[in-house]
Amino acid sequence: MSFPVKIVVVYHSGYGHTAKVAEAVAAGARQVEGASVRLLTADEAPQHWDVLDDADAIIMGGPTYMGSLSAPFKAFMDATSNLQYGEKRWAGKLAAGFTNGASRGGDKQTSLIQLMTFAAQHQMHWVNLGLNYGNNRSTTTEDILNRDAYTLGVASQANMDESGETAPPAGDIRTAEYLGRRVVQVAQELGAGRAALGRQTPAGVGGGSENQDPEGRGLRRELKASVA
Ligand SMILES: Cc1cc2nc3c(=O)[nH]c(=O)nc-3n(C[C@H](O)[C@H](O)[C@H](O)COP(=O)(O)O)c2cc1C
């Protein structure tokens, strides 16, 4: 049974490699019936908050530069601090992520953790890659899914002397497609589950610390009166 879900892929790419990964994530998502998929660059995203706020899942990615996400992608993250974070507009949505580096290791894990932390700040649910480590046997090849062996998301690798036309290679592109499909499937399961239970997407817990302690047990005495 198909279930309609809205997926947005937000990415930055300085030299075209991560753009290829983002397009593959979107292509994978489109393979699942019921998914409507929008691709936005980190620069475009602030002009389309309505699209992001309306999504069931936001899949985010940028290149790893100097051991963390690129500055333009970080600018997008910071731009969410006002309305999206402040009003918890993304609470209860799904999040997943990808990064691309020139190296197999290349500190790409830091970028995935950065994305996962960002999703948690927004009270989103992180969808991991859902694959085992890739190319770690004498019987496996570079063409395998998840060849660089990450679990939090896609961590692809593009040789720095090749353009986005040829790098990252096909196995990494297929890994990105796999993540796109997986996020749609989880979004459908979550959406159908909420519908079956008659539950709305949770509003999220925002505001000051008193909002997450309605009984006032963790508040100073002088503040207890104001929440009573
Ligand atoms: C300023 C800068 C810093 C970089 N730092 C890293 C790094 O820490 N780890 C890594 O694996 N690659 C690093 N790279 C290589 C890029 O991640 C790699 O070329 C990637 O494919 C670029 O993606 P893009 O074409 O989407 O911008 C760096 C590149 C630049 C320009």
Could you please describe the fold and organization of this structure?
The protein has 228 residues and is an alpha/beta fold. The protein has one domain (5-200): Flavodoxin domain (Rossmann fold, 3-Layer(aba) Sandwich). Helices cover 36% and strands 17% of the residues. Strands 1, 2, 3, 4, 5, 6 and 7 form a seven-stranded mixed sheet that branches. Strand 5, helix 5 and strand 6 form a beta-alpha-beta unit. Helix 1 crosses helix 6 (170-197).
Characterize this entry briefly:
This protein is α/β, with parallel strands linked by helices.
What does the secondary structure layout of this molecule look like, with pairings?
Layout lengths: L4 E7 L5 H14 L4 E7 L7 H5 L3 E9 L2 E2 L1 H9 L3 H4 L7 E8 L6 H14 L3 E2 L27 E4 L12 H28 L23 H7 L1
Parallel strand pairs: 1-2, 1-3, 3-5, 5-6, 5-7
Antiparallel strand pairs: 3-4
Observed structural traits:
alpha/beta, 7 strands, binds flavin mononucleotide, 228 residues, seven-stranded mixed beta sheet, Rossmann fold, 36% helix, 7 helices
CATH architecture: 3-Layer(aba) Sandwich
Number of domains: 1
**SSE sequence, one letter per element:** EHEHEEHHEHEEHH
* Structural category: alpha/beta
Number of helices: 7
Q: Considering DSSP H and I runs of 4 or more, what fraction of the residues is helical? A: 25-40%
